[in-house]
Task: structure prediction
Amino acid sequence: MRHVGMVLLLGFLPIELKAEAVSILSPAHLSPTAGAIVRHASADAETRNSASLFAALRAMVDPLSPQISGAGRFGAGSGVSGRDVVVIRNIIEQAESRRDGYDAVQHGARIKPPKRPTAMTLGEIYRWIDRTPGQPHAIGRYQFIPKTLRRVARIVGAQPSDRFSPALQDRLADVLLADAGLHEFRGGEMSRRTFMGNLAKIWAGLPMPSGRSYYAGIAGNKASMSWARFDAQMAQITPG
Result:
């Protein structure tokens, strides 16, 4: 299903789902291989540092859609490391959660979590989500929306009793990086520009070459950094 078609579906969604879609993000997925986090998007028209609308949309059709080129290769419980990953994670934080980082909560959430996100377990976050319907729930450094959070947690084998620590958040986000084509990019099979575009289709705060968010004009989404800045930082880690 094409992205435009999914956007049209928003008008027919329940209020609660519409809220999530508007919100991210990223944290969220309409992923590169199959659906949204979307693979990360975020709940009101003011959304700026929310996990991508991609995440909400992706959560609707579910992970991994042909919307992004590059299929992620990610084994359960595994993670990735390296300077390139650190740089990419920092770029996403600049776009999605620069103020609160790992403890970020989508600003449109009227009822905030009872504790700092990093002090909560996944189970506590799930209960907060279930008990506060009708508001955005993008959470953490990567602004994960509910369906995306549950999906990536399953992939890495995280349990409800696990703390939503910085380390766990990074592992969960790595699933999305793989979806965007991290391994193909590292192997020289994907260009920097294509990989950057895939990332921008996951996190609405990242820009496309035009300088605008892939979701500009939808639910208040906008890029929170320039293409020149995004490109300059990514150029530091381009293979070869």
Q: What stands out?
A: The longest helix spans residues 166-180.
